[in-house]
Amino acid sequence: MPFKIALFFGFALTTLLRPDPVNLYLIGDSTVKTGSGVGQNGQWGWGSVLSQHFDTTRIKIHNHAIGGRSSRTFVSEGRWDKVLSQLKPGDYLLIQFGHNDSSPVNDTLRARGTIRGIGEKTEEIDNLITKKHEIVHSYGWYLRKFIAEAKSKGAIPIVCSPIPRNSWNKDHIVRPDDSYPQWAEAVSDAQGAYFIDLYELIATEYDRSTPAQVKQQYFTSLDDTHTALAGAELNAKMVAKGIKSLKKCGLRGYLK
């Protein structure tokens, strides 16, 4: 009986002392989470299958990405404040925006665009949708905001360049010279955040196949931006590969 009691209290003590799981928060657009996150219209974001690559007994993944948002509207709708309020020291934050940031700054359809680049230029508008006066910043400004505010909470931010669309130049995926992938990297370097060149990792994989094969296997029939389940799984695999390459990042230790 004493032995059994000792075992019981030993188990109880271990349970009490076991640290809470580390949290990994994802923020982004539909390429990270589409609709309900479970294959709406055949579309899947990589964040919905990322858990396949992690030991989820030790880390909990919270996918706060949502379709249709840019870095700007993720902030203006209060979604970033909600994530920020939950961040704790030691948590991780994966950031991927860019696909919707190239939209118009002010229109009656979405009004979600950001100013191109990473500078401090602003544009004041009377938002045609919200009817509110708004100061719009650059893509880089919003990334800097995410990084700085996550760090202020003791969290570790990791920026991903946006995934490539199914856009080809002969037998290779188009590589932009001065656009969102490069801007994401420049901001990350300047702010001391981890960076994963997700665009290049995925584009390299696509280049192993033909445009027709990539379209059929990885993308939905609806467009050349949103991935099917196989595409989301490939992209999540590349995210895990990118995390594994971050030699000083503790998130590596939670990968399977």
TrEMBL record:
It comes from the Bacteria. Keywords: Hydrolase. Residues 26-209 form the SGNH hydrolase-type esterase domain. InterPro entries: RhgT-like, SGNH_hydro, SGNH_hydro_sf. GO terms for molecular function: hydrolase activity, acting on ester bonds. Pfam families: Lipase_GDSL_2 (PF13472). Belongs to the 'GDSL' lipolytic enzyme family. This is Lysophospholipase. It comes from Salmonirosea aquatica.
